[in-house]
Amino acid sequence: MKDQDPVPHPGWSGERDATTDSPVCPQAMPYFPEKGDAIFGQEDWIVGAVYCTDDFKLTHQLNADFDRLLPLIVSCNWLPKDKRAEFVQKVKSFYLNNQPVGEDNLEGLIDSGKVMGGTTVLNGLMYCRGDSSDYDEYEKLGATGWGYKNVLPYFLKSEHNLQYNSSQNHARGGLLTVSHYNDLPDLGHTLLAAGRELGYPTDVDIGHGRLREGFYRAQMTTRNGARLSAAKAFVRPFLHRSNLKVLLNAQVMRVLFNEHNEAIGVQYMKNNRTHNLYAVKEVIISAGTIMSPVILMSSGIGNPDHLQEKELAVVDATLQVYGTRKLRVIDASVLPDVPSGNLMAPTIMVGEKGADHVKTTWSCTP
Ligand SMILES: Cc1cc2nc3c(=O)[nH]c(=O)nc-3n(C[C@H](O)[C@H](O)[C@H](O)COP(=O)(O)OP(=O)(O)OC[C@H]3O[C@@H](n4cnc5c(N)ncnc54)[C@H](O)[C@@H]3O)c2cc1C
């Protein structure tokens, strides 16, 4: 058994596949909940490592269509209590002094929201899809069906734009309200006037996939003047559904496989204990651009060099992980390159499109 296996899978002998290094699990074993734990056994889908934009969009989409769903695993408060204050202090001084603190190297620190809604609870709210050529380039790189004409319907699907309502580029009726900031301070008016005077366009709409130089009043993901996180837009309104379960403060450690490289569930850590959770249909990993590949690697899928060499594009066009069955990655880590705008809208688009791929696989109406 490897060092990182704190509690063995009850059905796992410790044997690993010689080629993939995946755990060889003879059969899916039920998980018996601990006292005080939420009750989880087998579900149709597990969306693992959730807490981000994508998962919430995805969860909402799937939840509307399937009878048995989807424990939603959210990692909050992932540090032990006695370490939290120290960590926050280090983060603060890193940003205030712009240099690593103490002996720890925080140079690689990446912001990430650790609450329901993930990074959308702390981001800058800017709504931007990048440029259409980003997506057309992905298609040229081999991501069939990911050109701008293909992804545009998925941007429109979630959008509820209070200012623009062109049926070609913007939409109304989605769950994600997009609007200008309520207030434009005097300085904003001055900057727009200055841009106009210099001959730049001042009506640029960076939200619709055609970036150009100019000045503009940005659109944000806000509702009634307040932040609209992915959780608030896509999950909180549906928490009453009986087929949706949310598991808080749980950290996904790895995907569990059977001997056919078929994902059968996930192993997660909660209250310092390891638990297994089994999926009837699929496991979907959506932990963001950094952590999804880490979970895959912890599960024995690919070696770090190989994943890096491939720039983490380890999935096919329907987002299924090559060499495995019943395992998808649905988040921004599947994009072959970084789009030229901010990432929240593209991430939500990936969630929408990914949900349709899942529904198509399982013969449901996309
Ligand atoms: C400061 C800042 C400002 C930004 N401003 C904007 C903006 O103005 N406009 C815009 O469009 N975008 C902006 N972004 C980017 C945008 O918010 C993110 O790109 C987007 O939310 C990413 O979504 P995600 O789903 O990929 O990742 P996240 O929302 O970060 O979700 C990934 C989450 O998965 C969790 N996780 C990882 N591993 C595990 C595990 N093993 N088990 C359980 N959970 C796990 C992590 O804790 C992480 O929080 C900003 C980002 C930052 C940091």
Automatic annotation (TrEMBL):
Pfam families: GMC_oxred_C (PF05199), GMC_oxred_N (PF00732). Keywords: FAD, Flavoprotein, Oxidoreductase. The keyword Membrane does not apply. Residues 1-24 are annotated as: Disordered. It comes from the Eukaryota. Gene3D superfamilies: FAD/NAD(P)-binding domain (3.50.50.60), Glucose Oxidase, domain 2 (4.10.450.10), Glucose Oxidase, domain 3 (3.30.560.10). Its cofactor is FAD. GO terms for molecular function: flavin adenine dinucleotide binding; oxidoreductase activity, acting on CH-OH group of donors. PROSITE patterns: GMC_OXRED_2. Residues 288-302 form the Glucose-methanol-choline oxidoreductase N-terminal domain. Belongs to the GMC oxidoreductase family. PANTHER family: GLUCOSE DEHYDROGENASE [FAD, QUINONE], GLUCOSE-METHANOL-CHOLINE GMC OXIDOREDUCTASE. This is Uncharacterized protein LOC113468997. It comes from Diaphorina citri. The lineage of its organism: Eukaryota, Metazoa, Ecdysozoa, Arthropoda, Hexapoda.
